[in-house]
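TASK: fixed-backbone design
INPUT:
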């Protein structure tokens, strides 16, 4: 399946991307690549800029600076930052789902999947009434669209509910339907914004299977924003970590989860404690780097502190359903030990908790020597 002129190039290259909202640098000089046929995860604490990256890729925002290049299967090169959003969907073949579910809740499941194929059907109709009445390719296209919709309803185990309104589905099923809807547009790149949010462990497992199935069997590459580390570490080929709009780590799941900067960012350790954490992890080079001058442009801003996450969090242990409660007053060193212990026992980090915690500091407090 994977043959063609651009197959050996990354499907997406983000180069020196910046997005500013007034004085706030939501994304600062971000570069990364997503390889074709892989699942690339974009992770980071709340407000790190992940959704903003998606909004730039899919044309919802025009970036302040930088380039977003997509290499199409047919050899075309698309500069997404220069294209309007509807062309990004139709020509570059980028599909997305949203952090908050956006389905047509009054329409049936089948209708939701057919509406997604509207472009293809209108082309087949030749945009004429005669076309719609079945002269030309419309009937064939319409039958194909129904087949494709049924195929995806089967994949997500919802074929038995094809004629029910989408709004009647449980939350986890709606999340799967959104992914099916995106897949009905036959995307080359599928961008998923926190698809596991709100899912129970069983639904999370189904999601993993669905995403692996898409990766193995469709040729669609996936860019995944996700907080649930049991999803990220299991299915990603490559992980990019953002904090305050900057990239702090980039590599295999194994590399990223042992990166002291990532551990520090996720635990939200105080500035004085960063060095302790790094010393414990034993990374002299990073300690030296962190001793360098702080970058005044990307400390936490007033708006970022307003995005502070919950004041108490849980660390879920996916395999044994073990939950470690971390209260706001708990010793940071203890949190660190617990997470390290979890990650060595399970080879999986328990990172969900402190997502908001890094932001829960007083507004404007400089981040010591952190980069
Ligand atoms: N349209 C916007 N206007 C102003 N600020 C925004 C806008 N969109 C995002 N931001 C800010 O950009 C930062 C990154 O937000 P976002 O990309 O949603 O983070 P994440 O998805 O990583 O949680 C936040 O501080 C947020 O308040
Ligand atoms: Mg987001």
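OUTPUT:
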């Amino acid at each position: 399946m994977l043959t063609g002129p651009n197959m050996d190039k990354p499907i997406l290259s983000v180069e020196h991307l910046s997005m500013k909202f007034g004085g706030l640098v939501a994304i600062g000089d971000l570069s990364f690549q997503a390889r074709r046929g892989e699942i690339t995860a974009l992770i980071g604490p709340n407000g790190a800029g992940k959704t903003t990256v998606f909004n730039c890729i899919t044309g919802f925002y025009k970036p302040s600076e930088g380039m977003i290049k997509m290499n199409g299967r047919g050899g075309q090169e698309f500069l997404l930052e220069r294209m309007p959003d509807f062309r990004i969907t139709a020509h570059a073949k980028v599909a997305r789902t949203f952090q908050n579910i956006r389905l047509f809740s009054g329409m049936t499941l089948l209708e939701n999947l057919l509406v997604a194929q509207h472009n293809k059907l209108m082309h087949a109709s030749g945009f004429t009434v005669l076309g719609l009445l079945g002269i030309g390719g419309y009937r064939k296209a319409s039958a194909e669209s129904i087949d494709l919709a049924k195929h995806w309803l089967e994949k997500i185990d919802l074929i038995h509910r094809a004629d029910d309104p989408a709004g009647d589905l449980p939350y986890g099923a709606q999340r799967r339907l959104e992914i099916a809807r995106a897949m009905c547009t036959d995307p080359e790149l599928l961008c998923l914004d926190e698809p596991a949010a709100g899912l129970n462990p069983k639904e999370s497992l189904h999601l993993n299977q669905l995403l692996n199935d898409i990766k193995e069997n469709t040729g669609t590459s996936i860019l995944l924003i996700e907080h649930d580390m049991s999803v990220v570490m299991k299915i990603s080929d490559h992980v990019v970590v953002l904090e305050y709009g900057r990239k702090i780590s980039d590599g295999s799941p194994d590399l990223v989860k042992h990166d002291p900067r990532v551990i520090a960012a996720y635990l939200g350790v105080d500035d004085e404690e960063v060095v302790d954490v790094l010393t414990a992890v034993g990374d002299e080079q990073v300690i030296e780097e962190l001793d360098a001058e702080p970058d005044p442009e990307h400390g936490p801003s007033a708006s970022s502190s307003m995005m502070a996450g919950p004041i108490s969090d849980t660390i879920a242990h996916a395999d044994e359903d073990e939950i470690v409660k971390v209260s706001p007053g708990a010793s940071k060193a203890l949190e660190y030990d617990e997470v390290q212990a979890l990650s060595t026992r399970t080879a999986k980090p328990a990172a969900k908790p402190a997502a908001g915690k890094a932001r829960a500091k007083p507004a404007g407090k400089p981040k010591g020597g952190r980069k």
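COMMENT: Confidence is low (pLDDT under 50) at residues 293-371.
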